[in-house]
């Protein structure tokens, strides 16, 4: 009952592989092309799962009843996907363009804050501070009656 | 009524800050009324409840999930209400005079104390494991806020976080335990679980998890250090939460569930061992404390261990003793904390070394303390003595290895208890040579009357032991008695000269002996302490977790998009890929190709795609992606999808145009400022290839899993003429799945707006800056920082 | 002036010197090519009509709102490229409609189509057939869901026009700004 032929599986695999490879690059334009190629691969796979080549899902006409009808549902879904991929492509294009305008290149940068954390060895502050460590804090013992009394300044 | 009382606590707590804004004293006074009312109501219900008719109420919470607030008033709940509401009312009244009239903490503290009282009341009357859990965590949160106070002091913050981390860790594991036990039992009602306890492996695991919650909440070794640390809270708060009520929650839960689980070793063994250890450690550390409040805190730890042992073994007499001691401890420990508060208030110190001659200056206060301390030490005729006698008797009657070991442990613990009771009285009131006598400020009646109430209650209940006995024995009778003698034992002040009385005398004598050598003992406790302590362990665990968090974050969150994507891809390959290999099912009927025309089209697509990888110029790559798109369109035609192919061709053309529009302004070649290393590129290639192949193989294997030949979606085909369309695709798009289409065009609108905003924003920026800037010349500062 | 200056630079050898071949009232810009302008002049109306055909035939054969809209969009793209104008994104210079308005109108038509059945007590998005008799041409069957297709068509045309405005003219203007700055 297999609907995906060997040849088509090779095409899908090649599209996905190229898409993934481009997605892993640093150039935003390559990433964008990777998204487009992945979209092609996904649409093709969606369409292939609908069944082997068959008569277009249009009723009436001369070929009525002679051959099986192709499954219309994956086609409708793929059609939606094609148009949405296009919308996303234009958006990513604009994103890449803006990145180029602002920073002079369209490269995906590393997150600065993440790198700072990665470089750090120990936390800067700890919840498990040592009990004896009073720090630079001076003043009344917080558990004492004096701390719960009226504020000192008001006593007069 | 019971539920209404609980709710009233919580509601009134929310209103208290408004009252406190006018008068803090009125706020505390008002707060004290509600617990007092609760106590009176409980006393009114007591005859019926002790007669065997428990008061039950319930309120549907989330009926779909079978969640209800079940509450039940029985003997054990009555004992706890005396502590929660009775002692609570006394302490709230005391707080009115302890906190200054303009103290910034008073408003918050009054509201939180009342909120806590409500949560604790809910906890002790809960008859549903999940209801109990909710109130349990509410008390943890109230404790966190009360210990943390305004958060201005480091000591407060540290202690509050420690209390929260330890108790909530326990609480969460307890929740897991509750779920395991509740699911095994088929019900979350505690009374039902106790009536027919579930068994099995899951229950055993559940018990262990519940015990974690119990041990952390009741500050049992090795989780005990949070309790002494929590003494950073104001003294009335410590006296209420960390002596009389909240820390009893763990003990209370043990008492609740002992009738169900006491026969299994995984229940009583850890509790008895850790309870005895806690009793000894706490008592020993109390002997080294120089701060009266810390002394009492360690004393509380020790007494909690004692209570834990009594309730864990699940015998009738031990339980009776436990219930009596629960009552006694709440009364005498609350008294002593209030004494410390008053001493602190009138002298300004709690240090043993600084206090001298106070007994002579304030004989009344000293007398009240002596009564409470004597009850703690187990001296007749106080309630503490009655309870301790029963405890000694219980394990004497039990005998055997467990009885013997526990008896020895209890006597040793009692020796320490007597010693630190004596140390407290001596430390607070004695005239010490070489120390100037303190001159206390006059204490208002509000600071002494409340503590006399609790102190005298301990004496009266000791003298009229049958009153306490009714309560304690009503609970104890829910547990089996091993012998007739045990069954017939009644709490009383005088049982004649027997071994238990002898043991009490031994404890008293040993404790006083230990007290005479107090200086050496105190020095010894300090010398033995430190290197290895539970507090150090807690600090190591927390800082270790934080280091681990930094390490893991640093490794996982490296901030590089390719690394993240590669990780995702690896997971895609690894997880479903392993499943694919393990359940290998290659369909036998894979056709090489369906239509021969697919081969040249496929070659074009694959060749164009592979060429994209090598493309150096942007324009080349874009043209190649166009070729891929047109090739796919061709494949769609072959597949019998003319609509799809048409859309594909049109979209591809438009996309090409859009690409070219943008490419006009971008450099001709792909610019990589740092040339990627070859090894990394190869690795990326291999990863991508493997992922691609995985997808291809999945396509074949999964489509091979079909059990029937692929057919058209028949319903769509059948119904299409009704929509007036012969093109079924169109019928699906504008009729069957029209909502999808409306959603889709909305997405298009959003994307177009986004694109326009991104491009036109550039122009807007320039206009605002007032001068034209060459695009591509901007280099924000952060960019320099990243690239070093 | 030397002889060399009077010679037309080679990229402009086919620039038309007359305005009549420009579609509509497109302002004349520097870069014009005869071939494109002629093609645009001839194809533009034809392609628009074809796109309407695709829209209407969608129920019975390949086509529909998506394809029709895309084809119409391509017609405008052709005009934009031929006109090369920074203001070329309007539908005809005389009827100045801003692209976002077209997009909005498209979505409104679609949503109203979806909601109208609710006013008649039918589920949202349900459709009905109406038979119309047109003199001379005979019986027609019109499906109410055609309105949804019209909405999709308008929206897609609007989206493409908006792209021409942003990615097309917008970037072009950026480029001009950059050039003028480099020159100064």
Automatic annotation (TrEMBL), chain A:
Keywords: Cell membrane, Membrane, Transmembrane, Transmembrane helix. It is a multi-pass membrane protein. The lineage of its organism: Bacteria, Bacillati, Actinomycetota, Actinomycetes, Pseudonocardiales. Residues 129-139 have a biased composition (Acidic residues). The chain crosses the membrane at residues 6-24, 31-49, 76-97. This is NADH-ubiquinone oxidoreductase chain 4L. It comes from the Bacteria. Residues 117-156 are annotated as: Disordered. Its main location: membrane. InterPro entries: CPA3_antiporter_subunitC, NUOK/Mnh_C1-like. GO terms for cellular component: plasma membrane. Belongs to the CPA3 antiporters (TC 2.A.63) subunit C family. It is found in: Cell membrane.
TrEMBL record, chain C:
It is found in: Cell membrane. The chain crosses the membrane at residues 38-57, 63-81, 101-122, 142-164. It comes from the Bacteria. It is a multi-pass membrane protein. The keyword Transferase does not apply. Residues 36-161 form the Na+/H+ antiporter MnhB subunit-related protein domain. Belongs to the CPA3 antiporters (TC 2.A.63) subunit B family. This is MnhB domain-containing protein.
